[in-house]
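Our consortium's second objective concerns turning raw sequence data into structural hypotheses that experimental partners can test. To show how far this objective has progressed, the report includes one record in full. It was chosen at random from the queue rather than selected for favorable results. The single chain below, 378 residues long, was entered without modification.
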Amino acid sequence: MKPCYYEVLEIAKTASVSDIKSAYRKMALKYHPDRNPDHHEAEEKFKAASEAYEVLSDPQKRAIYDQYGHRGLEGSGFHGFHDVGDVFSHFSDLFEDFFGFSGGGGRGRQRARRGQDLQYAVSLSFEESFSGCEKKIELEKSHACDSCEGKGYPKGSEPVPCRHCGGTGQLLHSQGFFTISTACSACRGQGRVVKEHCADCSGSGVTQKLKKLTVKMPAGIDDGMQLCLRGEGDPGSLGGPAGDLYVLAHVEAHARLKRQGNDLHALERLSMVRAALGETLEIEGPDGAVQVEVKAGMQSGDQIRLKGKGMPSVREHKRGDLIVEIKVETPQSLSERQKALLKEFLSETAGQAPEVKKESSFTKSSKDSKKPKTRKWF
């Protein structure tokens, strides 16, 4: 289980943005890889602090985390950092502010980079979201160039060592106890200079290709949910892992049923006569017609809950409920015959007292508390 982000940065839940940045700077200095070489525990704490800062410094991510925790962030597509290289790449501007140099943590060597995450939106009907389905998608994504096998230069034209950095790809700078490396601008951190670029990819090593995928949408998927397909994003560089593909679901609204979580809500209108007499209704549920028993005398606003007749849960093997709200309608246009019948009904009930609901224990205790208390002497 992931630790609390506020505890990681040792701050209160009411901390301001400046408090969060100050706390992260303290943690970044303490657990920076250059200060803790080859120290796995310090590296993990550096990543944890960076992940906490990424969430708490972003108002939208922080709001989701405060309300739903780590699970809410995962549902929105946030999965933290894969490695320290991800941290340095993501916070390059921030580290420049902290340490005086962009990047950092290179220790004279170039790091592998994870590929870019991609997102693809898929539209589903309400029925497809209820039962689950498979969707075929097509997207353009980066692939290693076939001509140069991702190297960026044709065969027989090997790159030569860069004269500016001596082939390391990094230029070192010292400040205090830090030795921070930045990518060599002459070779762009590669350490070698290419004399002739591949004609098909213009030296980038990647080309765009159309890829077809079949995505299984689980039963119960809701509008705005995302599915993560690991490794289906853009390829990484220097041996880094590929990014992920996030499939965003757009679910069409139902004409009569309104979804709230895994529960479904339906509004059923009844005339005052039908509500007074009671009857069995047949309404449309997510998987067909459902019988609903309306008891005699139901009032407007009363609800009937049908257990297990709602939407399937994506994470659990159960379904939500179908909640039918009754709205009693009073007729506005009456014939003379109808008016006469209602007047006859009114005369027959004129001497009857209206039904009084029993007082709850809370109401009774509240009334009793208002009565003057008398002390009995024995």
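The partners drew two points from this record. The chain has three domains: 1-102, 106-159+194-253, 254-331. Confidence is low (pLDDT under 50) at residues 100-110, 360-366, 369-378. Both points have been shared with the crystallography group to help prioritize constructs.
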